[in-house]
Amino acid sequence: MSQTIVRLFASSQSAFDAAAELKKNGFRADHMSVVAPAVGSDVATVTAQIAATLVPKAQAAIYASNLPSGGGAVTVHALFGTAMRAMEILDSHNPIDSGVITPTSATPVWDEAAPLSSALQWSTSVSNPAPVSEILGIPPVINCPTPLSKFFGLPVLAKISNVFGIPQLMDSSAPFKGVSGAPLLINNPTPLSSLFHIPTLTKGR
């Protein structure tokens, strides 16, 4: 996971100096780019050059329109936990206004009410009644009385009972009696002793 940071500089030398300091501080050369277009380059060309550094084209167009002649643009793809340091280094070289609103902090926002969304940096789906269904691409089954059976294409429990010859338990007022054939023992103070015909051991010698 990385964060893309772009800074514009009034001179190409400032851009190269900023990139050199990034490299000196441990940022890999293949994670950064310097665009220093030739004097007289049109906006479309500069936009293409900045977009080639993996910057969204719409943002690249804004950067290109604000990059002065003879200036330079530095793009760095900072790995998780290093974005703040990259911003500090770039900002120490006096960048100019890029025209694009950039975050002032690289620290992720943590929401205690949505820890999973915070950890993965997903937006919370408060207005979505079935966010998991939307993420996984499966239809919501909230209004279905047998959601798992419907989702996996399985018969409901009552039908399974018929398939295997097992008495249904759903409507029985005495479910254990219906399955085992044993009488109800709810009112019996010694149900296990009665069931297995063994004497009770509650009385002392």
Task: Give keywords.
39% helix, alpha+beta, elongated
Q: What is this entry, summarized?
A:
The protein is 39% helix and 10% strand. It has ten helices and three strands; from the N terminus they run βαβααβααααααα.
Helices, strands, pairings?
Blueprint lengths: L1 E8 L2 H13 L7 E4 L7 H9 L5 H10 L5 E8 L3 H9 L23 H6 L10 H6 L10 H6 L4 H8 L10 H6 L10 H6 L9
Antiparallel strand pairs: 1-3, 2-3
Helix pairs in contact: 2-3
Folded structure, characterized:
About 40% of the residues lie in helices and about 10% in strands. With about 200 residues, the protein is an alpha+beta fold. Among the domains are: about 1-90, no CATH class; about 145-195, no CATH class. Strands 1-3-2 form a three-stranded antiparallel β-sheet, sandwiched between helices.
Overall spatial form: elongated
Order of H and E elements:
EHEHHEHHHHHHH
Task: Please tally the helical runs, counting DSSP H or I stretches of 4 or more residues.
Answer: 10
User: Roughly what percent helix?
Assistant: 25-40%
Main sheet makeup? 3 strands, antiparallel
Indicate the proportion of strand residues.
5-15%
Poorly predicted ranges: 104-110, 123-127
Oligomer: single chain
Q: What order do the strands of the largest sheet run in, or round the barrel if closed?
A: 1-3-2
User: First CA to last CA: what distance?
Assistant: 75 Å
Count every beta strand, where a strand is a DSSP E run of 2 or more residues.
3
| Mean pLDDT across residues | 75
Using the CA coordinates, give the radius of gyration. 34 Å
Secondary structural class? alpha+beta
